[in-house]
Amino acid sequence: MIIRSRPTRRQLLKTAMAGVAGMMLAAPRRVAAAQAPADAGTERLADNLFVIRMPGQANVLAQTGAGGVLLVDGGSMAASDALMKMVASLPGGGPVQTLINTHWHPEQTGSNEAIGRAGKTIIAHENTRLWLTTDVTWTWNGQRFKRLPKVAQPTKTFYTTGKLDSGVRYGYIPDAAHTDGDLYVLFPQENVLAVGDVMSGAGWPVVDYVTGGWIGGIVGGLQRLQTLVNEDTRIVPGRGPVLRLADLKAQSEMFGTIYDRLSQMLNRGRGPTEAVAAQPTKEFDARMGNGDEFVRRAFESLWAYVSPDA
Ligand SMILES: [Zn+2]
Fold it and tell me: Cα(54) to centroid of ligand 1, in Å?
């Protein structure tokens, strides 16, 4: 019985989730529309704060200022040159002084090498740095990711929280929602929160259980983020349009429902193929897209989480 091997962590999560269940009762039943991708270009969130969207690329958040540009995520390597030009042409823009990696994925870390070679600061959670120093293979499709050269690796890592001189704060999201190195970046003055792929504004997320993510972590992470925002906070996800607290609550409720369904199937000894056949995302698919791939990964993530050696 695989779930007997590490039962306590799941029970702990269940207990933690029960405590915030009351908070979710009033949540609007709306989930950000997957069919409405934000247009490519730049969206200004404040005088000095911009979301940069390039075709096919993950969101980049740029803060300009006298001390140089702060970037949250750096796009893919193929887009790095174009991104740096866009950043330089922003009002108050210029060269990047500091880059924060929300996690290790290549869609976020493609500018690390250029920024590292320029001798600038790259901030990440320590787990993200560790993933970037090793080759990773996704077991479900065989996709391989080469480690980054030394010059491209984060230069400043942390475990819990950190703060920049500008007042910008960042912190670890320890639930392992997307990977085990996820972080948020909070701009208190502008009331903007960047969350990387812990929240999705464009369809079902990748459940990267090879580097620690799991469906229970998605639920836990979304609940944790609710403690950092208010009704007016603009939330910048890894992909898609800027989101709000209502979206966060709705996603939290949706993934909580799916997590419960998959856990019940796991407890009855079902497997990933049966989980997909049961269509546990059915009522959400119209807005989020076909859920089959997500359900398979999410179910496999339960296996990986409760029985890492399986
Ligand atoms: Zn990612």
Answer: 16
> Could you report the per-residue pLDDT of 47-66, keeping only the tens digit for each?
999 999 999 999 999 999 98
Residue 30 pLDDT: 44
Neighbours of 15 (CB within 10 A): 9
Burial letters 20-52, b for 16+ CB under 10 A, else e: beeebeebeeebbbbeeeeeeebbebeebbbbb
115: closest CA among 190, 127, 124? 124
Residue 206 CA, ligand 1 centroid: distance in Å: 7
DSSP assignment letter at 150: G
Distance (angstroms) between ligand 1 centre and the Cα of 139 equals: 16
Both structure tokens of 67: 């001390």
Environment class of residue 140 by beta-carbon count within 10 Å: exposed (0-12), middle (13-18) or buried (19+)? middle
- Supply the angle between the helices 292-306 and 215-225 in degrees, to the nearest 10: 100
Length of the chain: 310
Token output for 30: 């709306």
Residues in contact with 231: Cβ distance below 8 Å, sequence separation at least 6, in sequence order: 244, 245
